[in-house]
Amino acid sequence: MQPVRRRGQFSDHIVGLLETLELSRDERAVRGALRKFTAAAGLQHYAYVGVSNDSIRTLTDLPSEWEGYYHDAHLSAIDPVVQQARKTVKPFWWSLAQMNLVEPDARRYRDEIGEFGVVSGMTIPVQVGFGRTAMLTFMSEHDEDAPYNITALKSAVAAVAYAHLHISSDEFAARQMLSSPLTPRELDCVMWTSLGKTKAEIAQMHGISEKTVRFHIENAQVKLNATNGPHMVRLALDRGLIPRR
User: Fold this and answer.
1) DSSP letters for 164-203
2) Which of 65, 166, 197, 205 is the most exposed, fewest CB within 10 Å of its CB?
3) Contact residues for 228 (Cβ-Cβ < 8 A; gap 6+)
4) From CA 147, how far away is CA 86, in angstroms rounded?
5) Same domain flag for 192 and 167
6) pLDDT tens digit string along 222-237?
7) Whole-angstrom Cα distance, residue 60 to residue 27?
8) Are residue 202 and residue 116 in the same domain, yes or no?
């Protein structure tokens, strides 16, 4: 049986998380703050997800292979917690076992993330403008009822805002580069395109043919699901694949 947690204790944990996030300026510190809060709250994992119609950014202590798979397979489109968070502005407690998952893809997602010990959790969403939603989720290995008064979670909304500001900053670009779906040459071509260079100029700079540059850029567009060059650049910037200058 899980221990009963008093609302006052939970509020203290939120205050500590806010103070740490306000002072932190790097990924390691943000991860540490989220990890400390997760443990203090008696839960097992955390996940930040920032999602729009055409891009996603995450930060989680779930195994790296899951995070990479989550990006590559575009699982945010079928993640039932993300879908619920995009429809509400209120914190909520969820249980995958108790969700009425009709679509086969959603049920498959439940089974796959369940292999990493994720059964239930609490999610605090924030609408951050331009059709984007940021959310912090703290996950449990137990299928339990909400251990907190959900109204108390409203005080955690500020924590999501702080986390969103940090994780959306350029300081996290290096981590996103490590999990980039693009090859180094594709990234290079996208970066120079973002700086206004033509295909001919990029080809001359690297001593390759313009046809080769076009090949790399077209591959990058396909991998990023971009409809054209400007869209490709925007998606690459949103995902932190190339630096903002």
Assistant:
1) HHHHTSGGGHHHHHHT-SS-HHHHHHHHHHHTT--HHHHH
2) 65
3) 221
4) 23
5) no
6) 888 889 999 999 888 8
7) 11
8) no
